[in-house]
């Protein structure tokens, strides 16, 4: 029977990967998504409600009202929290029930009720949530590439789709996209010829590649010798829990990675991407998206999707959850093999009661510097 590896792909609460991913913070929306209108979000297979109270605090709560179960999606956001439409119970961003207006005195037993809620924190233009055990909650990491800004640079967030275009919500398993990060060989094939050179010419050249495990994931070093003899050194990283640390494939300038992409598993068969990066112009992250046949992804006809496929087509083409039992690995898949092994090790650590890679409980270890970037050397000897 063709099968997939459930322990690596399924993200629901109580599953091995679901519990591993729940030990980290995940982006659940742009800062602007948390507003005075309740918004449905789906994260790791859980349906939740995101809002921002009148005091500016973002909240993420379970939709079913603790009273008699209608959805807080129809609730009204107020100064102190969200008020259920049915009998007016008011909950703050931490689920405390502040008012029960149908009961005398505002409900003398209201402090006995707690609406299920999750911790949220905002950074880099995104709202991050922690869905794991409260006593294991790590610090929300800071990333050097988003903290150390150059002159005129600022941080912008984007949620519009994959780098090479696609729908916002991609109907396949999150790991299919995350594995793509450590698969540099698909770049000259899929993005260098099939899609019609999506990136710059030096990216179309087949690189010499070294893969290695790091303390936070897997690193890919790609070397290409340019026509003038100089060596283009590109480092990309897949970092726990789902970070895509990929320098701009259009190589506007050399240097450390400009942005981070988070692969958010919506559920077992859907994911979406949140990106935050250093930019010098508003809208720069969205504008970097590739054009296929001179068009954006949503403008393509069915035939153009076939003739100019990109990441969306390649990854959804693997199926809702790819069948791992049917794969045939070659030497060029070493990055994927390392990433799966890395994930297996983290699953073991969590099962044994330990902390997985990259969770940090003090400010110093929560500050992360990546190796990723596009660099140029005069020669191989100068590397
Ligand atoms: S069901 Fe929400 S207040 Fe009654
Ligand atoms: Fe790709």
Q: In percent, how much strand structure appears in the residues?
A: 25-35%
Shape: elongated
> What small-molecule ligands were found?
FE2/S2 (inorganic) cluster, fe (ii) ion
Distance between the termini: 48 Å
**What ranges have pLDDT less than 50 throughout 5 or more consecutive residues?**
none
The SS-based structural class is: alpha+beta
Contiguous helical run count: 10
Roughly what percent helix? 10-25%
Mean pLDDT: 93
Largest sheet: 9 strands, antiparallel
Let me know the number of strands.
Answer: 21
Q: Could you tell me the radius of gyration in angstroms?
A: 22 Å
What does this structure look like?
By secondary structure, this protein is an alpha+beta fold. Helix content is 18%, strand content 27%. It has ten helices and 21 strands. Strands 12, 13, 14, 15, 16, 17, 18, 19 and 21 form a nine-stranded antiparallel β-sheet that branches. Strands 1-10-9-4-3-2 form a six-stranded antiparallel β-sheet, with no helix packed on it. A hairpin with a 5-residue loop joins strand 3 and strand 4. The chain binds FE2/S2 (inorganic) cluster and fe (ii) ion (FE2). Fe (ii) ion binds next to helix 5.
